[in-house]
Design a protein that fits this description.
117 residues; mainly alpha; Tetracycline Repressor, domain 2; flat
Length: 117
């Protein structure tokens, strides 16, 4: 099994960091100004990069949102994989520490959870 060169590992890490940085900047701008009013130029400027560099990582500003969706989906798959097979998926996701609040389900309090142990 071939291992990646150090240079390839560094490029991949740099790319991950840039994607994460751009996502954070874009989400902040979307929250402050609204998705429709924020341009790629605004995101690039706030991230101190060129528009061309933005497009190296994302085909369009809408694709920035896909990063969060992909992370959430990965967390959901991981949460479901660790739960017992006979547990209902809605229960598994509602009680998973890997996910944020799930609409329609209350998370058990620490006291309630410890009383079941």
């Amino acid at each position: 099994m071939a291992t990646e060169s150090l240079a390839a590992q560094m490029r991949a890490k740099r790319s991950e960091l840039m994607i994460s940085e751009l996502e954070g900047v874009a989400l902040l701008l979307f929250e402050e100004r609204g998705f429709d009013t924020v341009t790629v130029e605004d995101i690039a400027s706030a991230a101190h990069i060129s528009v061309r560099t933005f497009y190296r990582y994302f085909p369009a500003k809408e694709d920035v949102l896909q990063v969060k969706i992909d992370r959430r989906s990965k967390a959901l798959r991981a949460a479901l994989a660790t739960r017992p097979d006979d547990e209902a998926p809605t229960r598994a996701t509602a009680t998973s520490p890997f996910l944020g609040p799930v609409e329609g389900h209350e998370r058990p309090s620490a006291r309630a959870a410890s009383s079941r142990i």
